[in-house]
Fold F-box/kelch-repeat protein At3g06240-like.
Amino acid sequence: MSDYTPILPQELITDILLRLPGKSIGQFRCVSRPWLSLLSDSHFIKSHSTLLSSHDPGKFILVSDSDHTLHTITLTPSTSTSSNTSSTSRQDAVARKISFPQCPDKWETVVGSCHGLVLVRTDERSLYLINPTTLERVKIPSFPLALDPSASFSMHGFGYDDWTDDYKIVTLSYYDTDNEHEPDCADTFVDVYSVKTRTWKRFDPSPYDHAVPDLASGVFLNGGLHWLASDRSEGYPSVIAVFLLDGEDFEEVPPPSSLDRGKFVFNKLVVLEGCLGIVVDNYNDQVDVWVMKQYRVQESWTKFTINVHEDTDMLKPICKLRDEEIVLEKDDEKLVLHSLRDGISREMVVAGLPDTFEHGVMTFSETLLSPNFYSLNAEMHNSEGQIEA
């Protein structure tokens, strides 16, 4: 195979390979040494991940509430490409359990997703960076200055810093008001982990109050991790705070002008089609979803409304498909397909889906990018993962 001369131009072969699923790319590494070299090249891997993320509606990953196992969900081709809300007999997706035999911890929640890599937290508060496609994993070392989890609250975010070509984990933590360690401390500590250098660093406390009922993960978009928080000025108005991964400091994103600045901190942030969104529960039979079409341009916020049933406690958009359809997470136990055209919703038919799952369903795209991308000395197990049908 080493003397094989391709009939097609190499540029065309590369372009075709860039459009294949991640698992297929992994299999094709065995074709020849030139292909092994090409498909293992860091530039190819990054280009493949970027292209697939921009065209593929992606897959979902979640944690089962019953046995704390990880599951990935793959949409069927008919669901991801055509209108399907009127169908009740078609299978929409397939869920599969993924496991790492050498990992004794139980998974607690999915924290973040970026370029096909997923950050997951265990019930022991350990953080793992995993690739659900290649089943590689890296355990993130604990930070010596981290607050005692029994006396504090914490939120995490995961994203990519294009300026330094580095993936970063951001942890926001603050003491419980009833703690015995620092009863008068009201600061929110900001700790950043660099996947590239494998080091933690503590920055100045956040200028905002992050003590909110929903300890949500940071929403990654445009090089920053976004959280809903409160300004510490009089009245504690709500803000959209963004921690910029390149400058490693906080700024603000203007919210919709019509939202109540006193309480939109209690809502949820999402990303839909590459745009920042706010999910506003009106506590009736409607949920408003605001989408910022142009990042940081306040006038670009647009709104659409989803009608919900009375027995629905929580509704969160996960992703938007073709034909104006949205996948929704309902009450941590169901996935719903909603049509923006006619307002029709129906429960998705997902083979193998756990009865209930932890809040934190996220999308990811197939990638060959390794969580051990920057360091060969990291703790990685790339041959022990298993996918159960």
